[in-house]
Write a structure and sequence with these properties.
Blueprint: H1 3-23, E1 29-36, E2 41-48, H2 75-84
Antiparallel strand pairs: 1-2
Helix pairs in contact: 1-2
């Protein structure tokens, strides 16, 4: 994977996490870096508070899908394109209503 692709993934994930958290009451963004010695895998986990509990985590990766004003919905679509061309990286997006 090229460094520029990794930057696209991180910048979109962090921008979205920060924006969602800033709109929520809790305003929490957590970034965790973990190593799995058993499987030689590095894990980067981003968690954030958010208010829109009904966001469709499958649909947000489609081209043109956005909830933001004056945005074109290209960020996560670009992330998905990068992930499709790189088998050594996974992205898991989920809602946690706790």
């Amino acid at each position: 994977m090229q460094n520029s692709d990794l930057c696209v993934i991180f910048s979109n994930a962090l921008d979205n996490a920060i924006e969602a958290a800033s709109d929520s009451n809790e305003k929490i963004v957590k970034i965790m870096f973990r190593d799995s010695s058993k499987s030689c895998v590095q894990i980067i986990q981003i968690e954030n508070s958010y208010t829109n509990k009904s966001v469709n985590t499958k649909l947000i990766f489609e081209k043109g899908v956005t909830e933001k004003e004056n945005h074109q919905g290209m960020g996560l679509w670009e992330v998905r394109k990068i992930l499709k061309h790189n088998n050594n990286i996974n992205l898991i997006t989920e809602n946690n209503d706790e």
